[in-house]
């Protein structure tokens, strides 16, 4: 049994493993193997993401995907495995690797898990990891007929070109900079994200008022889930000075209409359970909580 750095040689077998595993961690892996292969292939071009695989008798029985966010001293790790023993081997490898590094400051290592991953959550709890946040995973049925939302003063438009990626980065940073766990983005980060996660930039929608001020945005995505195309509101936000006017509802409903037009029958989203206004908005629109996402944390002190 050996932990190896992922490369394209592992692509087919890792893809098979991921599509066979039950939902785990914070990544909404598609069940369509072709799409999963494309996502894994694109990961190799993102320098902030690395993958390790657990190989046993030439078969892959587990993996971890590590996202490094240097500007907030955080590492997010998604672990997937076929059994508890393999999961613990991968977890130990992550912790041992970063405890031995000569770091300039404390690093937060966070492991997102679903509430339904009871065995893993119990292990993290017994091992002394801290549950620092809970996100709600919400779902909405959009199989019924929908019309494009109307608003007296707002319009919705697509990104005009890749040159507007910087505008998108600036909007996100302004809206979410104070939010828990948010890592500020650059134009390059947005480009990498669109390439690495199989997002379609044509779905990203800018919301503007009748003064041509950008008030917010909605970032919908779609992925294959068994026989159904499922939509997701990946990000949605309204600038602080424009909140309280129903703009968030318009932004979400615009995203829902776009996803419906793509063929999605259901829409998912993740929201911080402590963001009471956002939770209330989504519930008002009809979203219901179907699972919870726990964020477990361990700190690796710097070695001096």
Explain this structure to me?
It is a single chain. This protein is α+β, with helices and mostly antiparallel strands and 304 residues long. It has two domains: 2-135 and 294-300, Gcn5-related N-acetyltransferase (GNAT) (Aminopeptidase); 144-264, Gcn5-related N-acetyltransferase (GNAT) (Aminopeptidase), CATH 3.40.630.30. It is built from eight helices and twelve strands. It has helices spanning 11-20, 33-43, 84-99, 118-126, 165-176, 187-196, 247-261, 276-285; strands at 2-5, 49-56, 59-69, 74-81, 107-114, 130-141, 154-158, 205-209, 214-225, 228-238, 266-272, 288-300. A twelve-stranded mixed beta sheet has the order 1-2-3-4-5-12-6-11-10-9-8-7, sandwiched between helices. Strand 8 (205-209) and strand 9 form a beta hairpin. Helix 1 (11-20) packs across helix 2 (33-43) and helix 5 packs across helix 6. The longest helix is centred in the first third of the chain and has 16 residues, at 84-99. It starts with a strand and ends with a strand.
What labels describe this entry?
Aminopeptidase; 8 helices; alpha+beta; 12-stranded mixed sheet; about 300 residues
- Shape designation: globular
Uncertain spans:
none
The fraction of residues in strands falls at 25-35%
CATH superfamily of the largest domain: Gcn5-related N-acetyltransferase (GNAT)
- For the biggest β-sheet, the strand order reads 1-2-3-4-5-12-6-11-10-9-8-7
- What is the N-to-C order of secondary-structure elements (H for helix, E for strand)? EHHEEEHEHEEHHEEEHEHE
CATH topology group of the largest domain:
Aminopeptidase
